[in-house]
Amino acid sequence: MTHPELYILRHGQTEWNATDRMQGWLNSPLTAKGEMDAARQGEILRGLDLAGFAFWCSPSGRAVQTAGIACPMAEAIHTDIRLREIGVGDWAGRYRAELPMPTSDDPYMSQYEMAPNGEGLAAVDVRVRDFLASINGPTVLITHGITSRVIRNAVIGPDALANPSVHGGQGCVYHLKDGVQELLT
Question: Mind telling me which InterPro entries this protein's record contains (predicted)?
Answer without folding.
Answer: His_Pase_superF_clade-1 (IPR013078), His_PPase_superfam (IPR029033), PG/BPGM_mutase_AS (IPR001345), PGM_Phosphatase (IPR050275)
